[in-house]
Amino acid sequence: MGEDSANVLFYTFVSSTKNETIKIYKRMSTQNKPLLEGASVSALIPQKPPIEMVDKLWFNDTTTTISGLTIREDNLFCKDGIFTEPGIIENIAQTAALRVGYVVSLMEQNGEKVNPPIGYIGAIKRLVIHQLPPVGSELRTEVTIQQVIFEVTLIAGKTTLNGETIAECEMKIFLKKD
Fold this sequence. Notes:
The protein is an alpha+beta fold. Helix content is about 15%, strand content about 45%. The strands form 3 sheets. It has a 7-stranded antiparallel beta sheet. The radius of gyration is 16 Å and the shape is globular. The termini are far apart.
């Protein structure tokens, strides 16, 4: 494989279309370098500018995804130099979308043809926003899969700024498959 095994994460995804296990080796994000950023992240989500609220993928495994967002002054959800509540909620939802896009891209790299499902927020529960971050901030958002029942996924989302939790919630996301 050519990579230090300490930097490699082995994980398994279950293919919903073929009901088989796909083994994928993927290099983990080390140091301060994301797995993906910029256009590579944009290609994995259905949202496009000016609605994109993720610009980095820091980590992904079988249950957890961590994204990043640098808040720019021209962000649609900024007002008076502050990133507002709808932007934080959209950032959490797009982290879940990035997760699906990334998993689909790995499955395709493994030779499987997959039509990525489109997700819709069905419910937001237990939303607590502790702080609104200023322009220039670098957010990290962690989404953890809590439960999957048919086409409904329950996630827990947490957004941090400099290691401090600024927002958290649960979301029910409905996946529409072609």
